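Below is how a single chain appears once it has passed through the pipeline. First comes the sequence as given, then the structure the pipeline wrote out for it. We keep one example in the README because the format questions we get most often are answered faster by looking than by reading.
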Amino acid sequence: MTNYDAPLNDIGFTLDTFCDVEALAALETFGHADRATIDALLAEAGRFMSEVVAPTNQTGDRVGAQLTDQGVVTPPGFVEAYQQYVAAGWGGVSFDPDYGGGGFPWLVGVILQELLTSANMAFSMCPLLTQGGVDMLSHHGTTAQKQRFLPKMITGEWAGTMNLTEPDAGSDVGALRTRAEPADDGTWRIHGTKIFISFGDHDLAENIIHLVLARTPGAPPGTRGISCFIVPKFLVGDDGRPGAANDVSCVSIEHKMGINGSPTCVLSFGEGEGAVGYLIGDENAGMSYMFTMMNNARLSVGLEGLALAERAWQPTLSFAQERRQGRAVGAPRGTSSPIVEHPDVRRMLLTMKADIDAMRALVYVNAEAIDLSLHHPDEVVRTENLELVDLLIPLSKAWCTDLGSVVTSLAVQVHGGMGYIEETGIAQHYRDARITAIYEGTNGIQAIDLVGRKLPMRGGGVVADHIARMRSTAAALDAGAGDAAADLTGARESLDAAIDAVEAVTAELMAMGLADPNDALAGATPYLRMLAVTTGGWLMARQALAARDRLASASDDPTRQFFEGKLSVARFFLEQLVPEVHGLTASVTAGAGTLFRFDPAVLAP
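Resulting structure:
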C-alpha cells in the first residue's frame, strides 16, 4: 500500500512564494482567515486526509462501487470516512457563512481539495460534485431554494451532482434531449436519460440533489434552449427532511479504467409520471448559469492532476532511494547501487518534482486570483484578477491534467516491473489520472477556449500583460553575486527565449485565426502547451528567486536542504523543461492544411 503524507512544507512554501495570504486576510470578507489560522487548519486537514481518507484508496480501487437492488453501495470504509468528513466540516470551509460555511478564501478550499484528492481521488468526487451544486445554487437559486438546499449540501449531509451528458450529447451539450414539462403546482416533470454522472447514486449521504439540464416546451434549439432544474433523489418535506422517493433511478454504473470507487451512473428521470424538478432562475438560461461556476469546476479538475502526481511522487521517491539495481558510475565493483544514483532515474524524479511544483504554483495563483476578482474592494484590481483567472483557467485545467498522466506514468517507469503490478498501488494512480483530461470540457476544448476566447480578450491586451509579467520576473534572474550554486543566468536565458517564442507565435496565431479559424484551431493544443510551459517557467523563476533568498538566511541544515532542493528543482525546470516550447512552434503555426488534405478512409487497414 502506498501511504500518503500531506506535503505541508511544500504547500507552505508555495503560499509564501506565490500568494499574499496576509492581503487576503486584510479583506473584510476574510478577516478571520489569518495565516496562523490557515496553517492550523491545513495541519489538521493533512492529518485527517492521511489517516482517515487515504487508507480507503486501494480498497476503493480493488472493490469498486457496486449496484445492488438497494441502490449503489460504495466500497468498504467509504461510508465511515465520509461520516467523519461531514462531522469535521471539511466540505464547507470556503462557503458562505450565512448557510453554515466557514467563509474562508477559495484558495484555502482548493488546498483542502488537493489534500483530499491526493488521499483518494475516487472518494473526493462526491464532495467535488456537491461543490458544483453549491456554486450553482449560491449564484442563481432563489432565497427559498438556498434556504432549503444549501445548508445540508454545505455540510455534506446531502450530496450534489451535475447532470449534463446524454448518450447523444457529450461535449456538445446543446444536443441534449431531456425534457421538462410544467406541472399544475408550479414544479416541473423531468423525463430523460443522463450518462457519466459521477456519484449519481450512492450510500454516503441521506439525499442527493441532482442539478439537471433539460429543455422546456418551445425552447429554441442548441444551447440557447437549455434550462437547469433541481431534482432531489428524495423529495424534501416542509420539515426540511427527505421524504418520498422522486422518479429518478440508477440504471447502471460504468466499468472504468480508473477511479473505481466513484460510481459513474446512468440515471433515468421520469420512468413513471416524471421526476419532480424545480426551475433555477429563468427558462433557457441554464448554460449561462453553468458558465458562472465553470472556472471553479475546471480549476478543481486541474488540481486533480496535481494531487495524483503528488500521491504517485511520494512512494516513487522512497522506492528510488531503497531499490538497488545496477552499479552506478564510481561505485565499488561487486556492489549494487540505489537506483536514485543512476542519471536517468534522477532525470525522471526531477521531472516529476519540477512538474508538481509548477502545477501547485499555477493552481494556487489561479485560486488566489479568483478570491481577489470576487472580493477586492477596488474594481480595477477585481478586473485585473478576473482577466488573469480567465487566461489561466484553460492552462490550469488542461496542462495540469496532462501532466498528471505524465507524472504518474513516470512513477510506473521508475518502479519498473513493480510499477506495473497492481499490488504496489502505483498503477492505480496512472489509471485514475487519465479521466481528468476529459472532465469539465476535454483538454482540446480548453485549447479552443484559450485561442478562440481568451487570446482576443481586450484586443490581445490580456495575454500581452501576461507576457510582460513574465518578462519582468525573467529580468530578475541574475548571476547571484558570484555564487555559482545560485547562478541563474542559464535559467534567465532559457526563460527569455521561451517568452520571445511565445510572443511571436501568439501574434502569428491571432492573425491566422482572423484569416481562417481552422488554422488557429489546428494549432490550439500545441499553443496551450507552449504558453503553459512558459508560464510554468515564469512560476519556477519566482520559486528560484524565493529559494535563493531564503537559502541565504537559513540557519539549520534541514532548512538549507529544503531551499536547496527548491532551487535545484526550479533550475531544472527552467533549463531542461522550458526549452520544449521551441519544438512546438511548427505545430502551432502549421495551419490546418495537412489535417484536411487527406481522406481518413485511406488510413483504414
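Residues 379-415 form the longest helix (37 residues).

See the next section for the split statistics.
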